[in-house]
Specification:
437 residues, alpha/beta, seven-stranded parallel sheet, globular
Length: 437
């Protein structure tokens, strides 16, 4: 099956080549590395832990884990890979001085994977949030590395997709040492896919352990000063939006809310920054971009476009209300835990299946406001406007949502420590084998 997988992957890669060429800005920076051409890594005798994050979300989630890995395993070296350009940029920013190397994850071809493994020679590989790459996992196991899924998440949609080739996936999962999952539903889906139940544990969600770092707090202060954010015109943040959610948010930002509040929009994908800027510029509201040089307009603009990488986390403390995107369309939603960690009143759309367990818990504890699916004759923007208006008109409701969200975050802490303890067990088992030998 791995042979046929490789053929399909190669065919897909050839089909994608024109896209790689057309969108060089997004793909060119990591293309050579992903083919297996890495800077030489100088080994010093210490074992290497390879942590793989995909993009910005996984990289942010890895912050507490990285700190604990460095503290608990000082005799190991840490290297970090990402798949996306945005993830790479953020990793280099927040893990500078912590990781011994930060690089792009290889394409899942035998030659590129083997080059990466030969260059970094990891003894332990940690894959964030269920990144299942069959060739990489097989070659890593053959190289002698142990492999763990950490902060594992498996939505029903992903489970259905993997289930179509369940015998193949079962063989791949046999090479995984442990799967540390966020919730019981994630764990059950992994076991149903065929992984040995003894390898699966529920350790919780690493994002519950996050806190605003000193560097983020400094950026928060700079953003507050530049855009003059204050209680006289509270800030609403539309976070991680997808097309056409920006238009929905703009249409919802009307009436008394428009006069009394300001709106910051943070698109999920950087390649859409210019398109969203054009949309905002064509509105009848004053508009500024974070990436533009500071100006007097920054302090009064109705609309702010946060078109920079990795700054949403620092902007969230400035908001009174946070709408979390990817949820007004059948995408499955984005994580609500960043605004929850800051005790913010959170609104989300009806499509949140990517984070089903977390959203259900927040709903049960009155820690989030979720919009219903629009019925015939209603628009997404109308329902969102009502959600904004309710929280704007009833400040106590905002406070209650934020307080409940913060309490849930407190109750959910501990995933990092549980994860580190399981990793320690994997490392110790290797040491015991070496001593016995």
């Amino acid at each position: 099956m791995l042979f046929f997988y490789s053929l399909i992957l190669a065919f897909g890669f050839l089909l994608m080549l024109p896209l790689f060429l057309l969108r060089r800005e997004k793909y060119a920076s990591g293309f050579q590395q992903r083919l297996g051409n890495y800077p030489e890594f100088n080994h010093d005798g210490r074992e290497v832990i390879w942590l793989h994050c995909v993009s910005v979300g996984e990289t942010n989630a890895a912050r507490p884990l990285v700190d604990q890995l460095l503290e608990n395993f000082p005799d190991h070296r840490l290297v970090i890979s990402t798949t996306t350009k945005t993830g790479q940029e953020l990793a280099k920013k927040i893990f500078a001085g912590k990781a011994d190397a930060i690089f792009y994850f290889p394409f899942d071809f035998k030659i590129s994977v083997r080059r990466a493994l030969a260059n970094y020679k990891p003894s332990l590989i940690l894959l964030m949030e269920t990144e299942i790459w069959p060739r990489f996992i097989r070659e890593a196991k053959l190289s002698g590395a142990k492999i763990a899924i950490v902060n594992g998440r498996l939505s029903q949609r992903s489970f259905d997709r993997y289930s179509r080739v369940s015998p193949f996936v079962k063989n791949v999962l046999a090479d995984i040492g442990v799967a540390l999952m966020q919730g019981e539903a994630d764990a059950k889906r992994m076991i149903d896919l065929g992984i040995d139940a003894s390898k699966v544990a529920v350790t919780g969600n690493l994002k519950f352990d996050q806190s605003l770092a000193e560097v983020d707090a400094e950026l928060t202060d700079r953003l507050r000063s530049r855009f003059c954010v204050g209680p006289e015109r509270p800030l609403i943040i539309a976070a991680s939006t997808h097309e056409p959610e920006e238009q929905y948010v703009l249409d919802a930002f009307e009436g008394e809310i428009r006069n009394a509040c300001r709106l910051m929009i943070v698109p999920r994908h950087p390649e859409r920054f210019d398109a969203v800027a054009k949309l905002l510029r064509n509105s009848d509201l004053s508009f500024v971009r974070r990436s533009s040089p500071p100006s007097n307009d920054d302090k009064t603009a109705d609309l702010i476009l946060l078109d920079t990488i990795g700054e949403l986390r620092a902007a969230i403390p400035l908001a009174e209300i946070v709408f979390v995107g990817g949820s007004l369309i059948p995408h499955g939603g984005q994580s609500i835990l960043e605004p929850a960690a800051e005790g913010k009143a959170i609104i989300t759309g009806p499509y949140t299946e990517n984070f089903d367990t977390v959203v259900k818990a927040f709903l049960e504890h009155g820690a989030i406001s979720q919009m219903p699916v629009p019925t015939e004759g209603t628009r997404e923007s109308d329902i969102l406007h009502e959600a904004f208006a309710e929280l704007f008109d009833y400040p106590n409701k905002r406070v209650e949502l934020g307080r409940n969200a913060l309490e849930l975050m407190r109750l959910g802490r501990g995933a990092t420590q549980l994860t580190v303890e399981r990793i320690r067990g994997m490392i110790l088992s290797d040491n015991l084998k070496t001593e016995n030998f």
